[in-house]
Amino acid sequence: MGVLWFLFVILAAGKALELKNQQYHQMPQLFQLDDYEKCLANGRGAFCLGSFNLVAPPNNRLFNVIQKISEERYNFNHTRIHRGYCVSSRCSDVEEVSLRRKFVKCVKNITQTHHGFDAKLSSLDYCKTSKTPPSRPIDGLDVAFIYFSGLILLMNVIGTIYDFARNPDHKPNRYLITWSLVESWKRLANSYESGNPRLTSLNPINGIKFSGSVLEWPS
Ligand SMILES: *[C@@H]1O[C@H](CO)[C@@H](O)[C@H](O)[C@H]1NC(C)=O
Ligand SMILES: *[C@@H]1O[C@H](CO)[C@@H](O)[C@H](O)[C@H]1NC(C)=O
């Protein structure tokens, strides 16, 4: 029984593949990517990347086939095509000032001319020229750092508010008062005039503490 089932799967897969091979080259290519580096190496180069949905006239035979192929579980969705064009060279005959519109018109024109389908922009990833400053995407570590800094800032706010609101005659909560900016500034700027010779002899340390905080300030 297991062997029969296995054979059935192989045959079914073979049939699907056959259909795919037959029609494959009639479909608009899933991806078309121009050479990004070469494009932007030119001082006037411009490169756009985006995805488009194919739109066909009703009852278009090829489009129905494409939809059917796309519904198969392990196939790409071929009704959504992905294009990365060197707009400055590939689309030089499209009259548009806006890069985005130039790109969209260009993809529409090429898809229409080669396959007879309309293409509707579904998402534009970017348009870049050689003058666009390079950007680095925000990653998990950046987000963690933002949360961490935000938490410290929040504790400062809570501590400072607590410091202002508390009754000065009572002993402050030492966990909250640690975060108070006013209290921290006092501790940073004041030396301990305690009259205790052991503490007074440590006064130079305050200088180091202060220089340390000034040095750390710009970072
Ligand atoms: C393929 O993509 C199009 C456009 O995003 C969507 O409408 C359609 O449902 C998708 N088809 C499948 C089988 O996922
Ligand atoms: C595509 O662009 C060419 C050249 O600009 C133009 O002659 C042609 O009519 C356009 N085709 C479509 C379908 O827009």
From TrEMBL:
Which keywords has UniProt assigned to this entry? Membrane, Signal, Transmembrane, Transmembrane helix
Q: Does the keyword Acyltransferase apply?
A: no
InterPro entries reported in the protein's UniProt record: O2_lipid_transport_reg
Keyword Transmembrane part of the UniProt annotation: yes
Q: Where is the signal peptide?
A: 1-16
Instruction: Write out the transmembrane intervals.
Output: 144-165
What is the official name of this protein in its record?
A: (apollo) hypothetical protein
